[in-house]
Write a structure and sequence with these properties.
Its cofactor is FAD. Pathway: Lipid metabolism; fatty acid beta-oxidation. Keywords: FAD, Flavoprotein, Oxidoreductase. Residues 290-434 form the Acyl-CoA dehydrogenase/oxidase C-terminal domain. This protein has 29 helices and twelve strands. By secondary structure, it is α+β, with helices and mostly antiparallel strands. The strands form three sheets. Strands 1, 2, 3, 4, 5, 6 and 7 form a seven-stranded mixed β-sheet that branches. A three-stranded antiparallel β-sheet has the order 10-11-12, with no helix packed on it. Helix 13 (301-329) packs antiparallel against helix 14 (341-369), helix 18 (450-457) runs antiparallel to helix 19 and helix 20 packs antiparallel against helix 23. It is flat and about 100 Å long. The protein starts with a helix and ends in a 9-residue tail after the last strand.
Length: 750
C-alpha cells in the first residue's frame, strides 16, 4: 500500500464548501511569514495608497455634511434613522463606493472606502453600518463580479443612487458559523412569471440578522438548490446558489427588526415559503446554480478587510483622542490624571494599539487596492482589529470612568462601547475566525506544497502516486530547511537579517525574522504528528495563527513608521509600543503552543529547534509606558495623524474636549506660574480657581491679559469634565442651565 493511500484512509475528507473556501482568494505577503522569511522587500515596494482629488473632495464635502447632520445620542433614543439622512446617503451615492463609474457609482479605492467608513464610524456606528453594508459583501459586489450584463445594467445604476437599497441574506436560525449548512432550499420546477410558464425555482427560506433587511427594496438570497424531477440533469443536489429578488416580488417577506444593542442601524429578518422565481433572478443566470458558496467566499474581502477593520480603527482614534485629552485636562490631587502611573499604563496601551490599528488598516487596504483578495490577511484584519478595538475602548472606559458611563450628547465613548460586540459577531464570529480560519486557511494556502499534497491524497486518479511522491520529497526538503533556519536564527542572533536603514527598526526586524523562522517548523511538525486532528485542535492551531497575525501586524507597523510618519522622533514611542506588544504576543503564542502540544517527544524537539521556553517572552518596560503616555497628551502632528478619523463638530463632545485640551496647552506656562505663586502664598479659602485667579490678578502676580486666557481655559475645562444631566423626566439640562428634550419624537422611517 502506498503512502498516499495510507494517508487517504487517515485524513478526513474535505467537504465541497471547505474546498471552495480554501480555493477562494489570493496569497499575499502573509505567505512569507508562514514560510519563515517575512518578505520586507515586497512589503516596502507596495505602492502607497493615497486619496484622489475626488475621494478627498467627497470626504470634505458629503461626508462632512453627513457628520453635521447626525446626532448619535438623539439617534440612539429614537426608533429610526431619520428619512432625510437616508435620502442624503442615497442622493450622494454613499451606497456606491465600490460600483464602477460607468454604472453611476463612485468607484473609490479600498483605502478611500475604509477612510470614509471609519470617519463616519467615529461619529455614529449606526450610520457607518448603514453605509458599509452595500459597499461590502452583498448584491452590489456579487453583481459586479458574477451578474449577467442585463442584471448589471438594470440593478447597478439603481443601487448607485440609492433608488434601491440592498441587503444580503445568508444566516439562518439553524446555520450561523456553519453557513454552508443553510437549510433554506429551492426546488427546480416550472411556474408562471409575467403571464408565461417558465423554468425556475420554488424557494423557501427563513433568515435572521440581515442588515438593512427592514428597509431593503432588493434582497440578495443564498439557498441550496435541489432538482428531484431532474429538469436540469441527473443530479439531485446542485449546491448553494445566490439570487436577487425585488421586495415587491410575490411572497417575499421583509420588515421585522432586531434590536442590536440599541444601535439603530436596520437589522432584521426575511422569510418566504414556496416563492417562485424565474432563472433570471439567479445572479449570473442559470449557469451559476451551485456556484453560490464560491461566489460568496471570494467576495468576503470588503467586509473582512475594509469595513470591520475600519470600524475597529475608528474606535481606536476615538478612544485615543478623547482619553488623552481628558487625561490631560482632568486633575485630581493637584495633578492631571495622566501623570499617575496607573492611568499612564492604560493611556500608553490605547496609544500604541491605535498606532497598530491605523498601520494595519492602511496596509490591508493597500493590498486590496492592488487587486488581490488575500483571504488570510483579511481574516487577520477582521479578528485582530475588532479585538484591539475592544481593548482600547475598555481602557478608555477605565480612565474616563463616570464620564464614560453617563450617556448624553457629550459622551464620546458610549455609542462605540455599545457597538463593539456587534463588530465581533459579523462576517464570521471572532471565535470562528481565530480558531478555524486564520491558520486553517493559512496553512493550506501559504505552505508551498501542502494544498497540492492534500489534493493528491484525495485524488481518485491511480496515477497520482508518482506525483504525490515528488511533492512529498519537496515537502520534506522544505521542512528540513525550515528546521535548520529556525536553529540558526534561534541560537545565533548575529545571522538574523534586517534591511531597514533605521536602527530603531532593524532590531525589531531581526526579532520578526526569528519569530517567523520558529513558526515554520512548528507548523510542519504539527501537521506531521497530528495530521487531520490538528483541524480539531483549535486551541493549538489558533496559536499558530496568532504568531502569523502578530508578525503581520508588526510588518504593518514598520511600513507605516517608515513611509507615513513625518516626525519619527515624536512617533518613536508609539512605534516602539506597537512593535514590542505585537512581538510579545507572538512570542507568548509560541510558548503556549509548545507547552500545550500533546506529544511529549515532539514538544521537546520543538523546544530544541526553536530555543523556546517559558521565559522566552520579552516585556514592555515601565519607562516606555510613561514616555508614551506623556507623548499621547501632546498636541502634535503624530497625535493628529492617529486621531484624524475623528472630526469634531462645533458643540459636540469631541469639540468640547479638544477646545479644553488646546486651551490648556496654550496656557501651560501660565498654569506653572500660578501653581508656583499659590505654593508660595496660598489663597485661603481657595473656593475655586476663578477666585484664586482674581486674587492673583489683584496682587499683580498675573496680568489682565493672562487672567483672561486662564479664565477662558478654566471655563472650557469645566465644560470638558462635566457630564450630561437630565431632569427627572429626562429633559437634558444644558450647560447654560436651560432644558431641552433629550428624547426626540420618532422620525418618519423609510
Amino acid at each position: 500500500m502506498s503512502i498516499r493511500t495510507s494517508l487517504k484512509k487517515v485524513l478526513p475528507p474535505i467537504s465541497i464548501t471547505e474546498q471552495e473556501a480554501l480555493d477562494a482568494g489570493d496569497v499575499w505577503i502573509e505567505s512569507s511569514i508562514y514560510r519563515g522569511k517575512p518578505d520586507m522587500q515586497a512589503l516596502r515596494s507596495i505602492p502607497q495608497a493615497k486619496l484622489t482629488a475626488d475621494e478627498q473632495a467627497f470626504l470634505d464635502g458629503p461626508v462632512q455634511q453627513l457628520l453635521e447632520m447626525v446626532d448619535d445620542f438623539e439617534l440612539s433614543n429614537d426608533k429610526h434613522i431619520p428619512q432625510h439622512v437616508l435620502d442624503f446617503l442615497g442622493e450622494n451615492r454613499f451606497f456606491s463606493m465600490i460600483i464602477p463609474k460607468k454604472f453611476g457609482g463612485l468607484e473609490f479605492s479600498p483605502y478611500a472606502n475604509s477612510t470614509i467608513v471609519a470617519t463616519i464610524a467615529a461619529k455614529s456606528g449606526a450610520i457607518a453600518v448603514t453605509v458599509m453594508v452595500p459597499n461590502s459583501l452583498g448584491p452590489g459586489e456579487l453583481l459586479m463580479h458574477y451578474g449577467t450584463e442585463e442584471q448589471q445594467n438594470y440593478w447597478l445604476p439603481r443601487l448607485a443612487v440609492g433608488k434601491d437599497i440592498p441587503c444580503f441574506a445568508l444566516t439562518s436560525p439553524e446555520a450561523g458559523s456553519d453557513a454552508g449548512g443553510i437549510p433554506d432550499a429551492a426546488i427546480v420546477t416550472k411556474g408562471e412569471f409575467n403571464g408565461e410558464e417558465v423554468l425556475g425555482l420554488s424557494v423557501s427560506w427563513d433568515k435572521r440578522y440581515i442588515t438593512l433587511a427592514p428597509i431593503a427594496t432588493v434582497l440578495g438570497l443564498a439557498f441550496k438548490v435541489y432538482d428531484p424531477d431532474q429538469l436540469l440533469g441527473d443530479k439531485l443536489e446542485l449546491g448553494i446558489t445566490c439570487a436577487l429578488l425585488p421586495k415587491s416580488h410575490p411572497g417575499v417577506e421583509l420588515g421585522n427588526r432586531h434590536d442590536p444593542m440599541g444601535v439603530r442601524f436596520y437589522n432584521g429578518t426575511t422569510r418566504g415559503e414556496n416563492v417562485f422565481i424565474p432563472m433570471d433572478f439567479i445572479i449570473g443566470g442559470q449557469k451559476n446554480i451551485g456556484r453560490g458558496w464560491q461566489m460568496l467566499v471570494s467576495c468576503l474581502g470588503a467586509g473582512r478587510g475594509i469595513s470591520l477593520p475600519a470600524m475597529g480603527t475608528a474606535t481606536g482614534h476615538s478612544a485615543l483622542k478623547s482619553t488623552a485629552e481628558y487625561a490631560f485636562v482632568r486633575e485630581q490631587f493637584g495633578l492631571p490624571i495622566g501623570r499617575f502611573e496607573g492611568i499612564q499604563g492604560k493611556v500608553a496601551d490605547i496609544a500604541g494599539k491605535t498606532f497598530l490599528l491605523e498601520a494595519m488598516r492602511v496596509l490591508t487596504t493597500e493590498g486590496l487596492g492592488l487587486g488581490v483578495k488575500p483571504a488570510v490577511v483579511t481574516a487577520i484584519a477582521k479578528y485582530h482589529m475588532t479585538e484591539l478595538a475592544r481593548d482600547v475602548m475598555n481602557s478608555a472606559m477605565d480612565i474616563q470612568a463616570g464620564k464614560g458611563i453617563q450617556r448624553g450628547p457629550q459622551n464620546t465613548l458610549a455609542g462605540g462601547y455599545a457597538a463593539l460586540p456587534i463588530a465581533i459577531t459579523v462576517e464570521g464570529a471572532n471565535i470562528l475566525t481565530r480558531n478555524l480560519m486564520i491558520f486553517g486557511q493559512g496553512a493550506m494556502r501559504c505552505h508551498p506544497h501542502l494544498k497540492e499534497m492534500v489534493d493528491l491524497i484525495h485524488s481518485n486518479d491511480s496515477s497520482a502516486d508518482a506525483e504525490f511522491n515528488k511533492v512529498l520529497r519537496k515537502t520534506v526538503g522544505f521542512s528540513v530547511k525550515n528546521a535548520f533556519r529556525s536553529i540558526g536564527k534561534s541560537y545565533l542572533p548575529f545571522i538574523r537579517e534586517a534591511e531597514s536603514s533605521l536602527p530603531e527598526v532593524r532590531k525589531y526586524e531581526k526579532r520578526m525574522n526569528a519569530i517567523a523562522a520558529k513558526l515554520a517548523p512548528l507548523a510542519d511538525l504539527s501537521l506531521l504528528v497530528l495530521g487531520g486532528d490538528l483541524k480539531k485542535a483549535e486551541l493549538l492551531s489558533a496559536r499558530l495563527g496568532d504568531v502569523m497575525s502578530y508578525v503581520y501586524a508588526a510588518m504593518a507597523s514598520v511600513r507605516f513608521y517608515e513611509q507615513r510618519i513625518e516626525d519619527r522622533k515624536l512617533a518613536k514611542p508609539y512605534f516602539d509600543y506597537a512593535m514590542q506588544w505585537s512581538l510579545q504576543q507572538a512570542e507568548q503564542a509560541l510558548v503556549d503552543f509548545i507547552n500545550n502540544f500533546p506529544n511529549a517527544a515532539t514538544r521537546g524537539l520543538m523546544r530544541v529547534l526553536t530555543n523556546t521556553y517559558s521565559n522566552s517572552v520579552s516585556g514592555i518596560s515601565d519607562d516606555l509606558l510613561r514616555e508614551l503616555s506623556l507623548a499621547a497628551m501632546q498636541d502634535n502632528s503624530v497625535k493628529a495623524q492617529l486621531t484624524h478619523l475623528v472630526r469634531p463638530i462645533p458643540g459636540d463632545g469631541n469639540d468640547i474636549n479638544e477646545q479644553a485640551f488646546k486651551a490648556k496647552h496654550a496656557v501651560a506656562h501660565l498654569l506653572t506660574k500660578v501653581q508656583k505663586a499659590l505654593r508660595k502664598e496660598p489663597v485661603v479659602p481657595f473656593v475655586s480657581l476663578e477666585n484664586a485667579l482674581n486674587k492673583l490678578q489683584e496682587k499683580g502676580i498675573i496680568s489682565s491679559a493672562e487672567a483672561t486666557l486662564l479664565h477662558d481655559y478654566n471655563e472650557k475645562r469645566k465644560l470638558a469634565v462635566r457630564v450630561d444631566e437630565f431632569t427627572f423626566d429626562m429633559e437634558l439640562v444644558n450647560a447654560d442651565g436651560n432644558t431641552a428634550e433629550a428624547v426626540s419624537s420618532t422620525k418618519d422611517a423609510a
